[in-house]
Amino acid sequence: MTFNSLQAYQEIWDALSDGEFQEALRRASTTSQVKVEELLAERRDLLELCREVVEAKKRFVDLLEELVERAYRSLEAVKAKPYYAEEAEEARRIIGSIVGSGKLVVMAKSMAAMEVGLRGYLESLGNEVWETDLGELLVQLEGSRPMHTITPAAHMTRLKAVKLISEKLGVKLKSDSVEEAVKAVREFLRGKIVKADVGVSGANALAADTGAIVLIENESNIRLVTSTPPIHIALVPIDKIVPTLLDAVKVAMVQAAYAGLYPPTYINIIAGPSSTADIERVRVYGAQGPRELHVVLLDNGRMKASKDMLLKEQLRCIRCGRCQYECPVWVHTANKWGGPAYGGPMGLVWTAITVDPIEAGKLAYLCLGCGRCDASCPVEIPLSTILRHLKSVASRSS
Questions:
Q1: Same domain, 205 and 90
Q2: Residue 1, pLDDT score
Q3: Which of 307, 324, 295, 333 is nearest to 383 (CA)?
């Protein structure tokens, strides 16, 4: 995926001049910060869980190649079909060959899918594709990209969201209330999900010992997308692989806590396609859920980063988006600052890993060096140090 920092600077300038955009970000960041602070103050046990994840993640990074191999074998053992994609283009090709054309595809929220440009690619093959997370759907209707890792439509006010739903989905809303909008989206998406040929998801974590995918959510769209269509495709960045199922659950729970969504309404564990052994204990795959589970393990620069003494720190990232809400630059720019998929402090580093370190470094000059991202990161990634490094990389290239 190509990325031009000059274009990003223009988008940032436009965002700074957009009053509605700025007001929506102010509301979202303030609300999120308060929720997380209150939650962590009340639930001290989450801090202990976080420390366990920190120590575990530090060990996992140096075992990445081994974990990928173990995960591959475990996925095969549970009758899933694993693939390894070295680059974004390869991931698109693999998934495109599974989906084909003329299909109805429903997608759960996945930044990895955004990273590889999956929705647009599947549409270019002649498929009808719908995001099922409310925030992602709003972004799709707007024709833009997610402005936060956890809350994609953080840049939208209620009135803008309601207008998009009414106009783009062609539904008549009785009022401009959030409740009415959510009801309309539920009815629209249910009609798509029950008819879908393929469901696509990401993963919060993948356990190497069992091949189990762990997904947390509040909307229940992920549960429907991964269980209703006959084919489920999971796109999983290799940095999401951890040794055990218990590790995977811990990572997911910490992400939920630092995103201010604790306890999550749903936690999904998927180990293979649906099956039954109720007749003479004969295992048959394809019961009430998917007949097929395809898991695409996405590298896209991550294995190379694992050999870099500084960039490998980013592979501990659990995508909670905490650093974004805490960053004084992101609060005014959202994901316009960061890269084509990810934004904010962590987004710049992911852009350096998956796209281009020089272009990421050029945008890193906007970093104030305040260190709030370091202090807020639950897995202790030294983001400000990495951003200073990226600035030097960009400087040496000019």
A1: yes
A2: 61
A3: 324
Of 381, 321, 295, 372, the closest CA to residue 53 belongs to 381
**What percentage of the chain exceeds 70 in pLDDT?**
99
- Bridge-based pairing of strands 292-298 and 205-207 is unpaired
Query: Helices in the chain by DSSP H: which ranges?
Result: 5-16, 19-42, 45-60, 64-77, 88-99, 111-116, 118-124, 134-142, 158-168, 178-193, 221-227, 245-258, 302-305, 322-326, 330-333, 344-354, 357-364, 372-376, 383-397
Domain hosting residue 335, numbered range: 5-42+321-397
pLDDT of amino acid 182: 95
Q: Are residues 33 and 107 in the same domain?
A: no
* pLDDT at 282 (0 to 100): 94
Query: For residues 356 and 359, what is the distance between their CA atoms, to the nearest angstrom?
Result: 6
Does residue 57 form part of some domain? Answer: no
Q: Are residues 92 and 158 in the same domain?
A: yes
Structurally, the chain folds into a number of domains equal to 2
Residue 316 lies in a domain: no
User: Nearest Cα to 138, choosing from 128, 152, 149, 127?
Assistant: 152
d(CA 339, CA 349): 9
Q: What are phi and psi of 129, to 5 degrees?
A: -125, 130
Of 254, 272, 303, which one is at a domain's C-terminal end? 303
Partner residues linked to 370 by β-bridges: none
Cα 192 from Cα 198, distance rounded (Å): 11
**Does the structure show a pLDDT above 90 at 134?**
yes
Mutual angle of helices 19-42 and 5-16, in 10-degree steps:
90
CATH code at 164? 3.40.50.10420
pTM of the model: 0.96
Helix (H) or strand (E) holding 276: strand 275-276
For 292-350, how does the pLDDT look when each residue is reduced to its tens digit (9 = 90+)? Answer: 999 999 999 999 999 999 999 999 999 999 999 999 999 999 999 999 999 999 999 99
CB 234 within 8 A of CB 295: yes
Rg, the chain, Cα only: 20
Last residue of a domain, one of 255, 275, 303: 303
Percent of the chain with pLDDT over 90: 92
